[in-house]
Amino acid sequence: MSYASSLGDEESVQTRKLRPDEDLESRNVSATVSMATDRHLVHSVVVPPSSSVWSQFKEGVNDIFFADQPLRPYKEFQGSRRWLAYVYYAIPILDWLPKYKLEFLKGDLIAGFTITSLSVPQDLACARLANLPLVHGLYTSFVPPLIYAMLGSSRHMAIGPVALVSSLLGSMLRPEVDPEENPGDYLRLALTATFFAGLVQLGLGILRMGFLIDFLSHAGIVGFISGAAVSIALQQLRGLLGLRRFTTNTDIVSVMRSIFKNTDRWNWETICLGFFFLFLLIAIKKASQVRKKLFWMSAIAPLASVIVGTLLTFIARLDKRGVKIIGKIHTGVNPASFHDIFWSGHYVPAGFKIGMVTAFVGLTEAFAIGRTFAALSGYRIDGNKEMIAQGTMNIMGSWTSCYVATGSFAVSAVNYQSGCKTALSNIIMSIAILFTLLVLLPLFRYIPICILAAIIIQAVLSLIDLRAIYLVWRTDKVDFLVLSGAFLGVIFLSVEIGLLIAVGISFAKILLHVIRPHTALLGNIPEDEVVSTDGTPIQYLIIEMAPVMTIDTAGIHAFEEMYAVLQKKGIQLTISNPVGGVISTFKNAGFVDLLGQEWFFLSVSEGVQVCSMMMKRNQMLAMGKENSKFSENV
Asked: What's the pTM?
């Protein structure tokens, strides 16, 4: 008798070849040795040994949180070498920086300075979206990219404030604190939300719970981002029209009502200046998409627009004619803000709620960006490392006057097209931002608000992926319902409600597919009947269990009911190829004893062999009984 591994470490099989002279008719199927012919081997499933409750709990936790076993390759190392390998795994820069090639430096330098020219005006505009002092946008492009360069796994992702998260943060903070009446508490709550956002992201990474991001389907992401892009663009009409009073709501009805009720307050100098640069930015963007070699034009266009618009405003004194400018910005590096975070009081729950929402949105955007450029460059990102990197940089950012940062798709695309080779481009951008904070800020005083609004509108319009929307419509109408719900929820209600709708519908779809999988009821086709050739009824039912990875008490109960029904009809139930977790659950629930271990097989073919042989044996026994009765009668 020999034993062989069959399904990994969790299962074993038992084999024996029967002698040709063994009497099969008088032999019963046992739980330890399977029946076979003299030409075949039949394997029976052996139940894994029982384990303690603690061992089962530990295995369950490992299967959920550490299924990929990230540290397994380093267990062969000994002592300090193993701990050093763990440190290298946790801090990727220690791995790639010593291997850095000088030939990469040119591409990283060009990419770093190019994305700086794009980031500076976008940082100012994003901070305005969040209703924060504009300098905090630059702060957020200084510290977080440095942290990400050390801990992140993406080579091309550019870190900083983004329009989507900034708008979401601003819309959720305003109901809690008015930024105009109480700017100090508003800033403190923003830092508190940033801290909790980082804490949530870091916790998800440590617990390896990146699968939670998958509850928001691709269709939900497309609908949410498209709706948010439309909502953000509509809100920027305030800056393009020169309106000083505007609604604090983000839904399209409130925004349009606020615009057309104040037509007498539109500033035509602002409108001409803002729309001119908006059309110019869109035209340059389209030209760079048609001719890939002109990508550098779209990269420097925002900064060039800011410079030209600032000069026009200063020379023509447009600020005296109603064109709003950003005004004086204090120079200097990020001030420490650890003590500005609300560690107690009634703002803490609000900060946690806002932080949790922005954490998930930031991770969703970062994952999409990281996977896109990793696929283009032939490498893979580590989702759990990304969450740890994003969480760490936001926690550290909240202590240095930064608000929620994540990957920017537009800046990352320019980073990739500029020839970026490693995450060093983020470090170069941070150094350039530091120089801007220390030296160049006084030059920003006359930047027109309308140009920042034009930059934001041009940036968010590229987030509306019409091709992806059409593809969702063609492929899956239920997914299109998810997309539509998220889109309409954002533009007619609010950004956070649209996100909840997307998550809710996506989660409901997953549950629906699990609880109500697609089934087909088979019946007789008219005028096409199948006639049995031998007239024997069904005696055995073999269920293939290989696709079933786990089973719960409801599943066990269903099997027990099936077994009882089949027994009444004289049909023997058999199980084929159950995995280790399933057979263990069967054993613990007593179903193995109920059915009999001899009716568990490693494959359908082996089950068919045994069942066919049993049918033949039963026929032979029946024929023998008939012959004996006939002899007695004779």
From this structure: 0.73
